[in-house]
Structures are given as structure tokens and as C-alpha cells.
Amino acid sequence: MTGTEMTDTVTMSAAIETGSALERRVDMTVVLAEIERDVDQRLKHMSRTVKMPGFRPGKVPMKMVAQQYGSQARSDAIGAAVEKAYGEKVREQKLRVAGYPRIEPKSDAGPGQLGFTAVFEVYPDITPADVSAEAIEKPTLTVTEAEVDKTLEVLRKQRTTYVETDGASVKDDRIVIDFVGRKNGEEFPGGKASDYSVIVGGGMMLPDFEAQMHGVKAGDTKTFDVSFPADYQAADLAGATVQFEMSVKKVEAARVPEVDADFARQLGVADGDIDKMRAEVRSNLGREVKKRLLARVKEQVMDVLLKVNPVEVPKALVAMESEQMADAARRDMEQRGMGMKNIPVEPSWFTEQATRRVKLGLLVAELVKVKDLHVKPEQVRAIVDDLAETFEDPKEVVRWYYSQPQRLAEAEALALENNVVDWVLRSAKVSETPIAFDALMGNAG
Predict the structure, then answer these.
(1) What is the pLDDT of residues 336-353, one digit of tens each?
(2) At 173, is the secondary structure helix, strand, or coil?
(3) What is the DSSP letter of 347?
(4) Which residues, in sequence order, are CB contacts of 218 under 8 Å at separation 6+?
């Protein structure tokens, strides 16, 4: 006889109460006599295989078995009885439980009984609201040769090399400096560095410091004042004016590659054909623009869904999502080589994001069910093909996706979101609005 079969003999009762909008409480009582009979059955079952020094298996006296394993058997019996009562009530009421119950003891169960309360949350009932009155601006952008030229310029700057020079520094050059900062004549924490490489005009330093890096040569030494902004993160420097001493050790002139055959080969065009390079850049740029346009529309769609469907979500689901996001942040930091021992990552930091994710997850799931927006295999394949297209061997990438259930599930989730976006766009008031290339790509200047 198994432990589950034993608990079928336990007599119990349960009543359900409603707390907050999503919280439920199930009060349960379990008859102690039935628990003791279950404990005896569990101990008898254990005695068949339990091993103790001086006894053959199955021959250990029951008294010794009870002394050794009685507490465990009683805990298991009570746990099974409570789980059974809780499960029956949840099924009887057809409750959609979110997360796990919290079991609390009750002191007023009555003679010969044990009392417990299971506290848990349920999923909210969602009826998707009408979105026909909502306005969505759909950004549009056509990729032309001008956008290809801008992209090539970015790619050129990414491949900048530096050559040491005796000349004076200009914007985009790299200089190597030593510097020390003093406030009221005393050095302050974080205000000193040696062999520090910085791009002239790169915006990495405070404006007053940046201004002093232009027109310097190797061997120059300068002393100058720097004013910190009033909202500077270090409170003791916020709004203060300090003095810096800077020594220039090296000036390296920036060399941006020309758009030629060598540059094309750097971008993966084996024969150095510039026209072929431009065609590949345009194709890749088209995919990136399409992805970013969709991301902007999707964000608006999700904002609309949240606006018209105010919904309370289970705290348990938000807590689980926050923990997952914190774990992901820890893994990301570790992969970047950051030691995590002294860098705490608290789930509470992600509560707002996690709440949004949970709400949208519930809304999307309900819309898929109510509006029949289920994903078709060809939609998933189209997404996988698009993701694979940027790799050297797309067919191998496709095979990899379809051999990895977790990766394929990500593509399916993306297709599901796209179906929801398409449904909202068909239902809402959509207007097309051109967007500037630099604004879409996040290019400065």
C-alpha cells in the first residue's frame, strides 16, 4: 500500500473563505484518530525494508521503528491529509490556483482534531475589453541608400584604429593621461587615475574636463577647475568646484577606414565587392528596421491592453517573476566577469517590471483563447527562418531551433505576441507616422 492510498482513509472537512480579490482561505480539520491509523500503516510499510544494526531487513521490532521514524511518519501523514483536503476543495470549487498555498495551524479545531488554514491566491477572471476607441501610431520608415550610407558610417567608426602622433589632439582622437583631483587642496576618492585612455569629445568626462582635452600634445601638463553638477551622485562633490591636474602621456590620432575592398572583406564579403557589401548591409538593415518598428508598435499595443484592462495579479506570480528576473541579472553580470559576492541583486528591484510582465502574460493568454489567436506552425517557422537568416549556415540554425524545445518555445511565444499585436491593430484606430532613421536606431547627433 502506498502513502497516497493510506490517506484515502483519513476523515476531514474543509470550508472556503474569500479574503482579498484574489486571496482565498481554506479552513480544514483532520481527525487525529485517522491520522494515527495512517501513521501505523506507514510505519508497518517502513518496517518491511528498514535496516538497523543487529537485525535482518524486515525483522526490526515495530517499537524501534516507531522510535526512529515515528515523527517522520506523523509529519507525512498530516501533510498528505492536508494536501488531500486542500486539493479536493480546489477541484470542487474549480479554482485556478496561482502559486503555492501557505499552510497555517489553527488552535480552535475542537477535541480530537487538528486544524489548518491554507492561504493562497487564484488567477483573476479577465474579460478582454474593447480597444476600438484606442489610438495607436504605427511608425514607418523605408530603407534607402541614405540609410545604407549612415549605417556604413557607423560601421566605419566602430572599426577605428589609433596611431600615435606628435600633433595636437582633435575630436575623436584618443589620449592617455594621468590626472588627480583636489577639493580644497585635498585629494578626493575617485579623482585620481594613471594611464587612463579616453576619447576626445567622447562625453566620458565632465564638460569642464572635456574642454581641456582638446588641442593637447604628449608631454603637456595642465591645471584647471572643474564644476560638478548639483545632482552629482557623490554627495560631497555635488555642486562643488575642484581643481584637476592633468598630464598627457600619449596622443593617438583616429584612423577611420575607407569604404573599399578591404573594408568590405572586414564585413564578411570575401571577394571585397563593394556593391555586394552594400546589398548585404541594406538587407541586414531592412531586417533590423523591421524589428525595431515592430518593437515600437508592440510596446504601444501592450500599453493599450494594460490601459483598457485594469487587472489585479497574484502576488505569488509577481514574486516568482521577480526572482527569475533577479537570477537572469545575476547570470548576466557573472558572464560579464563581475563578481557577485559583494553585489546583491534583490528581486524587489524588479517588482514593477515583473508586475507588468505578469499582467501582460495573463492578458495575452486570455486574448489568444477568446479571440482564437493560436499560433500556426508556419508562423513559428517564419520567425525561426528570420532569426536564422543572419547566420552563415541558416539551415543548421533552423535545425538547432527545432532540436531545442526551449528555444522553439521562445519563437512560439514571439509568434503568439505578434498575433495579439495584429488583432489589436485590426481593432484599434491606427495611423501611420514616419519616423527618422536616427531616432529609430538610437544614433546620437
Answers:
(1) 776 655 567 889 999 999
(2) coil
(3) G
(4) 166, 248, 249, 250, 251
